[in-house]
Every structure is written in C-alpha cells, then in structure tokens.
C-alpha cells in the first residue's frame, strides 16, 4: 500500500509525509475491515452464533482498527462512550437526551479544540476526532430514540456491550456511517430481513424473496468499482486543480472572471471524489457484513442502501441547493434533522447549520461555510417558491429551468464550501473579496425581494385551513340537521 500511494504521492493535497502515511493506514484498515466483514457474515452468521459473540467480535475488531490508526488517542472513543452511557443510566428519561447531547457534543468540541489549537493546527486529514464525530451522532441518536420511544417502548436501554458494539464496531469505527440503533440490533440478531421481505418483496410474500436471504455480493462489487474510479480521479486531478489557486494573486488578476468561475467548479469537482471514495467504501464494508439491506426494487433485485451516505449522480446533477445537501452525507443530514431541525422552535434552518458547523470542528472556515449556507438555502427556497411555478407550464420550459438551476447550484455550492477547504479566515475572506461577495449580496437581495413563508408556517397554515374546512363542514351538517328538524316541527 505504501509503495502504491508513494507512486501517486503528488495526488494528495499536502506534502506532509506523516499525513500521507495516516491516509495509507486508513485505507489499509478499511480494506482489512472489508475482508473481516465478509468473514463476519459467512462464519459468524446469526444462524451459527449468538448475538453476544457477534457483539464481542465486532467491538474488539473495532478497537483494534482504532488503535492501529490512532494509537492511544482512541481511548477518547471509550471515554466519550463511557461518559454518555453514565448520563443515560443516571439521568431520568425526561431529560436524558438533552444531558447526553450536551455532554457528548461538549466532549467532542473539547477534543477538537485541543487537537487544533494545542497540538497540530492545519492537520486536517485523518485525525482522531473524525471517528468521534460519528460516535457523537450515534450516541445522541440513541438518546433521542429512547426518549421519543419511552411511551411505546420501541427502543430499550442497551447493555454496556451492546452500546460499545453500536458505537465502535469495526464496520463503522473509522468512517461511519451513522445508523439507527434498532437497525443495528436487528442486523446483529439476524432479524433485519423479515420485515423488509414482507413490505418490499414486490408482492412475492410467499416466493423466493421471502424465503432466501439476499446476497450483497453484486452491490459490494459495484461499490468497490465506484471506489476505484473515485480514487483514480481524485489522485489524478487534485494536484492539477487545487482550490488554493483561486486565491492566487496572479490567477485572480490575469484570469477573466467567467474562467475563474469555471475553474472553481472544476476544482471542487476534482475534490469530491475523495469523499465518494471514503463513504462508498464504508458502505461496502457494512454491506459485506450483511448490514444495509433495505428491501427490494421493483424488478425484484435487493436494495442495500439503508445506511448509504451519498447518491453521486443526484449530487452532480442537483438542480437546487437543497437537493445537493439531501444527497450529500445523507446520514448526517438525517441526524441533524432528527436532533435539531424538527425540535428547534425558532429559526430551525439557522440552528441546524450552526450545529453542523460545531459538529464539524473549530476551524473558522467551517463557520463561514455554514453561515453562507444559511443565506444560500433561504435564497434557493425563495426562488423555488416564487419563480419555479412559471416554468412548469411545459416540459421544454421545465428543462430550461433545470439547466439554469443546475448551473447556479453548482456555482453556489462551490462558492459556499471554499472556506471549508481553506479552513482559515484570511484565505477565505481573500477569496470572497476576489468575487466581491457577489453571491452573498445576490442571495440577500433575493431573500428581501422574494419573501417566502417558512415550511413550518406553511404546514401550520395548511393545518389551520384543514381545521377550518372541517369546522365549516360540521357547521353545514349541523345547520342541515337543524333545518330538517324545523321542517318536521312545522309539518307536525
């Protein structure tokens, strides 16, 4: 592996040998986890061994990979899990989710501050807080699931072994993705197939789809091919199209603005395959272990996308800011929706973006990106609500609208995430100044000129309208009944 990656040394976005070796360790561990996942599914199948053994093996392998990649820093994974488990045990059900959220996220932020500002500022790649971000999602998701399901008893308090297995199993310890605790327990116990057989078996409830366990082989091979293509593209193009060139004085002064826009889009396009590689490989590992089955397609083929983290084609051809975000880091978006957006009483969009920035880390570039994302989301929502209906009159008009919004979305996303890549305040503001903050100003103008009700207000107004219609119908029925009674009285 080291020889292979040294051949493509120039493909990495840094020249630090230590960081490159960490990336090599990460890839080697993930490939080892892939082999272990196949072994886990074949030789520790639920029909052959108990859930206890599966929990123990999954947890021990996870700790081994963590120690190999991060050394004794991996003890933070145990500390974070232990603190949150103590909160869940000793806190009451009414406030457990809040305390668990504060303690877990606070511990993550403390580790991020220590790593960035005390030890190695700028060492963005493969740090030990990366797995802690996923563990934070799992811990808080479980706490909210227990709180929300306390009346229906749909989620029980896990044992310590089950808890550690859920947080630190070898399939998701390095790159996730986040999953539901109930789904993970169903996978360990071997009960995850039956409900989806009955619900999504294309009507063949008594056929072969219900009786046989689907194989993930084809999906794993397909995802590994996607990984190989993504890695090749990333290593080939990343050095040729660095994002940092966008703030180079010679480039800014001597390049026409429209070419700067095209270059920025291509630079971000070359950067995304790194994430495609990491998340698709993580998904393939879980599938190889037998985790991720999500029913069947209409043609009867099994779907293994229960915990998939991205949809590449939907990302690259997204026609709105929201569509892009909905298909990028899907499990994190669902986590943010469950723990923040659906619960925040005041301005949930801004609160969700702020939580996302805090969860990602303490680099100023993250906050600049997500603050910009708030304005972009509001502007995109206003455009969609006010302008899109005029283009739905015919298919040709809609295609024109889709092409325009695709181009605008790609430029807007690229513009927004530049600070996420540059990390520091100075370079980020230098980039935005070179663009004269044009998209910030344009979005603010759109928000002011095209006001739109929030979705929560729209839903409330719609609900009020339904209630009003229901009251009117009841009143009409009541009046009709009264009229009938009066007519009977008169006849008498």
TrEMBL record:
<protein>
    <recommendedName>
        <fullName>Membrane bound O-acyltransferase domain containing 2a</fullName>
    </recommendedName>
</protein>
<feature type="transmembrane region" description="Helical">
    <location>
        <begin position="403"/>
        <end position="422"/>
    </location>
</feature>
<dbReference type="Pfam" id="PF03062">
    <property type="entry name" value="MBOAT"/>
</dbReference>
<feature type="transmembrane region" description="Helical">
    <location>
        <begin position="56"/>
        <end position="76"/>
    </location>
</feature>
<feature type="compositionally biased region" description="Basic and acidic residues">
    <location>
        <begin position="466"/>
        <end position="480"/>
    </location>
</feature>
<keyword id="KW-0812">Transmembrane</keyword>
<keyword id="KW-0808">Transferase</keyword>
<dbReference type="InterPro" id="IPR049941">
    <property type="entry name" value="LPLAT_7/PORCN-like"/>
</dbReference>
<feature type="transmembrane region" description="Helical">
    <location>
        <begin position="434"/>
        <end position="452"/>
    </location>
</feature>
<dbReference type="InterPro" id="IPR004299">
    <property type="entry name" value="MBOAT_fam"/>
</dbReference>
<keyword id="KW-0012">Acyltransferase</keyword>
<feature type="transmembrane region" description="Helical">
    <location>
        <begin position="96"/>
        <end position="118"/>
    </location>
</feature>
<feature type="transmembrane region" description="Helical">
    <location>
        <begin position="365"/>
        <end position="383"/>
    </location>
</feature>
<feature type="transmembrane region" description="Helical">
    <location>
        <begin position="22"/>
        <end position="44"/>
    </location>
</feature>
<keyword id="KW-0472">Membrane</keyword>
<feature type="region of interest" description="Disordered">
    <location>
        <begin position="460"/>
        <end position="492"/>
    </location>
</feature>
<dbReference type="GO" id="GO:0005789">
    <property type="term" value="C:endoplasmic reticulum membrane"/>
</dbReference>
<dbReference type="GO" id="GO:0030258">
    <property type="term" value="P:lipid modification"/>
</dbReference>
<keyword id="KW-1133">Transmembrane helix</keyword>
<keyword id="KW-0256">Endoplasmic reticulum</keyword>
<dbReference type="GO" id="GO:0016746">
    <property type="term" value="F:acyltransferase activity"/>
</dbReference>
